[in-house]
Amino acid sequence: IIKFQRDLTDIWKEKFTRKLCIISRNYFSDSSYWRSRHRSRPKVMVACSHFATERNQRVYAFSESGRTQNNIPDTIFALSTPPGRAALAVVRISGAHCLQLLKRLCNSSDSLELVPRKLIRTRIVDPYTGAHLDDAMFTYFRSPKSYTGEDMIEFYLHGSPAVVASVLKVLEDTQLARLAQPGEFTRRAFENGKMDLVKIEALADLIHSETTLQVQQALKNLDGALSNQLYAWRDQLMTTLAHLEGLLDYGEEAELPDDIFEKAFSSCEKIKLEIRQAVEGTSIGEMVHDGIKVAILGSPNAGKSTLLNILAGRDVAIVTNIPGTTRDIVQVSLQLNGVKVICSDTAGIREDKDVNIVEREGIRRALEKASDANIKIIVQDAQHCSNELLEKYPSLLDENVIFVLNKWDLIEHNASEFRQLEQIFQDQHSWLNSLLKRNIPVLKISCMTGSGIPHLIETLQSFISKWFEKVHFQDERNETAVELLITRQRHRNCLKEALAAIERFGEFQKTPASIVLAAEELRQAMNEIGKITGHVATEQLLDVIFRDFCIGK
Ligand SMILES: Nc1nc2c(ncn2[C@@H]2O[C@H](COP(=O)(O)OP(=O)(O)OP(=O)(O)O)[C@@H](O)[C@H]2O)c(=O)[nH]1
Ligand SMILES: [Mg+2]
Prior knowledge:
Gyrase A, domain 2, binds guanosine-5'-triphosphate
């Protein structure tokens, strides 16, 4: 039993080696430290459980009353399947009162055959009226071998809204448990050291995944692919740090072995290269997660919004024959070749004295979208096709452009325009031909008749494949490149900070006097990596991450 200490984590690290640790919450209950900041569990315990799980030790936390300071039940319950009629509905309960609740709901004075992790059949009754609520199954998960790390029960009810409502009401009436907040089960799993933040984010990604690639990515991270790499980096940094700090015992004047700094610097060099490779390449992992960005750009009235509506298969953007109709960016999410694609329609780009302040802002946003896009579809009205736009904004053109001549139906019926355009195509020195020479596809389509649209979609798919040809979540050695596993800007930012700290470490002079400062940089790098996994986590960050979870997860 460990008494409350602000620095418990250090004591834990250094002195505590036993296999089993029991922390009585009573020891913490007088401390204003956790009472002011946490409704249900002491921060120190959280820290302990992290260290404990890292060392395969168990942490048990209990309070005699099973309630928090404010007398709110610490046991939570929720419907974990979507509301509505279904074959089954799963209700989860987690916390100290699980077994008491089970006894009441199953009306079992005689002992239930409670083998953990076994499916058991039972009658569920209202303990107050004796009314029969459902014939159901349940599984008991004994702490700590459960999702949350606490005692848990999962009831598999018949999926009738009436059955579910009555069971939830009875659970609430017992006053032994309360309805869970969104993501609260997972938050308990995190606080009890069952999952780190990377895995929790992967779980959220899996639940929200829309494409097969996203599923593969989420499963990899849920399996610990990114976490393991981060732990490996942190452990290597920790070892180097330990060696350097050991040197401090020699004193500043002492003669040190010659190679001691070389060893520390060269091991950091390796980590530095690995992290740099992971963060400085294309953000392909984030692209799988967030979707590849396709921007539809061009002059006003060219048919950009019409094209977006065709790709989306529904009327998302307003289409009129008035130039300058679209002002805001209109976005739709599509799935092409198993990849999530975010397609954006933008305001027509033009320089005109009639352009008012609203349209000008729309044009600014369109150009911003263009610079941010992975693929650009530049649409022109084939009747008024010219290179004015590309001359004015040469940065629009690069190897990720598909050039589209729309309204081909009108050209086909106009012999002189048709001849004129064909001439431009054939002229070796024309601007259209220069696009072809740069391997930029120039496609003739008609959004009105649909001609050329399948070819445009094929071309778009081949452009997407170009971005994703590197994406293999499994190589021959069953490994996945780290850049594929970085799913969020948050990961990237922390890794960049860690990299900067390791680089600063490398710049220190190799003298004993600078060890203290140099070591501080390594500690900073470890801290940044710890922020990704949640070993160094702020309440705000946790609130943001768990906000996206549904109730019952
Ligand atoms: N004949 C013909 N008309 C088309 C075609 N595509 C679009 N249009 C028409 O062209 C007009 C402009 O279409 P929009 O899709 O609003 O054009 P836009 O590029 O989004 O225009 P802004 O939002 O003003 O920049 C509408 O009247 C469409 O019906 C086509 O392939 N053939
Ligand atoms: Mg438009």
